[in-house]
From TrEMBL:
Pathway: Carbohydrate degradation; 2-deoxy-D-ribose 1-phosphate degradation; D-glyceraldehyde 3-phosphate and acetaldehyde from 2-deoxy-alpha-D-ribose 1-phosphate: step 2/2
Annotated EC: 4.1.2.4
Designated name of the protein: Deoxyribose-phosphate aldolase
InterPro entries xrefs: Aldolase_TIM, DeoC, DeoC/FbaB/LacD_aldolase, DeoC_typeI
CDD domains reported for this sequence: DeoC (cd00959)
Native source organism of the sequence: Actinomyces respiraculi
GO molecular function, one term: deoxyribose-phosphate aldolase activity
GO cellular component: cytoplasm
Protein's gene: deoC
Pfam families in the record: DeoC
Keyword Cytoplasm set for record: yes
Function: Catalyzes a reversible aldol reaction between acetaldehyde and D-glyceraldehyde 3-phosphate to generate 2-deoxy-D-ribose 5-phosphate.
HAMAP family: DeoC_type1
Length: 217
């Protein structure tokens, strides 16, 4: 049985509401420390933030639509890293995915990876809006572009968030070479455990307290 501590250490404790205030972000950070989460994930306009040693800072790029020009995504990502982000979660260009222009998808991801340098890059593929074949192909393109993780969802797309099926397919595609982050609609301990069982190595959640309250140390 996966423990509360182990799940906490996989969580990106997330606050991406556009109306979030600095005070709410400070509370998120304090809560992340208390819960023992791996990181806090905030919007780029919140950076820089003060965090204690050991708590990483993640942010998003091209969020939530992914429909930004590649140069804009790269500039946004570079600015976030310059302001202290350790990790960047970028949204793919879904038009390119739906048109099956895999070279363009790869180029988009590669440009952002080059922009973030040593920072960790996660690629949000919006799996609920994709076919299985598209999930596999966008994961493969992300790997070719040297991404560090593939991630299911923004949590903002009307098609929905993470699913066990998508996480399992993503893990089967990237093996142990990349991380897999499940995000979007994970609200209970049972949800979190199911995602980990399917192959998730990181969880993006805002309901961290409720999830961890359902687990034992």
């Amino acid at each position: 049985m996966t423990t509360r501590r182990e799940i906490a250490a996989m969580i990106d404790h997330t606050l991406l509401k556009p109306e979030a205030t600095g005070e709410q972000v400070a509370a998120l950070i304090a809560q992340g420390v208390e819960l023992g989460t791996f990181s806090v994930c905030v919007s780029p306009n919140q950076l820089p933030v003060e965090v204690p040693e050991g708590l990483r800072v993640a942010t998003v790029c091209g969020f939530p639509s992914g429909a930004h020009a590649t140069a804009v995504k790269a500039a946004e990502a570079a600015d976030s890293v310059a302001k202290g982000a350790d990790e960047v979660d970028m949204v793919v260009n879904l038009r390119q995915v739906k048109e099956h222009d895999w070279d363009a998808v790869e180029a988009d991801v590669r440009a952002v990876k080059e922009a973030v340098g040593a920072a960790l890059l996660k690629v949000i593929i919006e799996s609920a809006a994709l076919t299985d074949e598209e999930i596999v192909a966008v994961c493969q393109a992300s790997e070719r572009a040297c991404a560090d993780y593939v991630k299911t969802s923004t949590g903002f797309h009307p098609a929905g968030g993470a699913s066990v099926h998508a996480v399992r397919l993503m893990r089967e595609t990237v093996g142990e070479r990349l991380g897999v982050k499940a995000s979007g609609g994970i609200r209970t301990a049972q949800d979190a455990l199911a995602m980990v069982e399917a192959g998730a190595s990181r969880l993006g959640v805002s309901a961290s307290v409720a999830i961890l309250d359902g687990l034992e140390d």
